[in-house]
Amino acid sequence: MKFPVIPVALVALLTAFGGAPAKDEPAGKLERALFAAGCFWKTQYIFSKVPGVVKTRAGYCGGTAPNPSYGEVCSGNTGHAETVLVEYDPGTVSYRRLLEVFWHNHDPTTVNRQGPDVGTQYRSVVFYTTDEQRKEAIACREELMRSHRFPRPIVTAIEPAGPFYDAEDYHQDYYRKHGEVCH
To answer: Of 19, 37, 49, 104, which is least packed with CB atoms within 10 Å of its CB?
Structure first.
């Protein structure tokens, strides 16, 4: 079952919870979250529209090779997943809210794929940076499993964040620049 994403509706929903602060004026200390949810182009765009998110970067996480290129990641030999690094103001948006955006904008029941994109680089992963994030991600995943929202078991991994490597410049903000090109 495919779960369609309508970014305009998502933005309207998120905006209903309060306006976004100025991107260059966070209310407090920024925190980081990392999410792999298939193609990072659309994932980056969706997170960039969440009020309280100050910055997003497309990149690679969860693998073994240092400074991998897109071609190396796509080969499946590095173990990296296409990942979005989200820098956010926790005074404006909670980590829990970011998890909700993550769960609602991809299919967490497919192994190593999202739509027509297939390979380990498209797997579903929450990479946590603190023990609190780990606990919140596990609790949220368990709640979703109990809710039976998805027709199949959730296969999203929850793993400690290793090094994050920025993707090449042409991948940054790709969806915003080029529109609906992701599947």
So the answer is: 19
- Catalytic residue, chosen from 39, 61, 140, 182, is 39
Per-domain boundaries in the chain: 26-177
124 phi, psi to nearest 5 deg = -95, 120
CATH class of 26-177: alpha beta
> H helices then E strands: how many in the chain?
6, 8
Neighbour count for residue 17 (Cβ, 10 Å)? 13
What would the two tokens of residue 7 be? 């970014």
pLDDT tens column, 58-93: 999 999 999 999 999 999 999 999 999 999 999 999
| Residue-wise burial string across 142-164, b where 16 or more C-beta atoms lie within 10 A, e elsewhere | eebeeeeebeeeeebbbbebeeb
**pTM listed for this prediction:** 0.83
Phi and psi at residue 59, to the nearest 5°: -170, -155
If pLDDT is split at 50, 70 and 90, which confidence band does 182 have?
Answer: low
Residue 61: active-site member? no
Scored b (16 or more CB within 10 A) or e, 45-82 reads bbbbbbbbbbebbbbbbbbeeeebebebbbeeebbbbb
* One-letter amino acid of 55: K
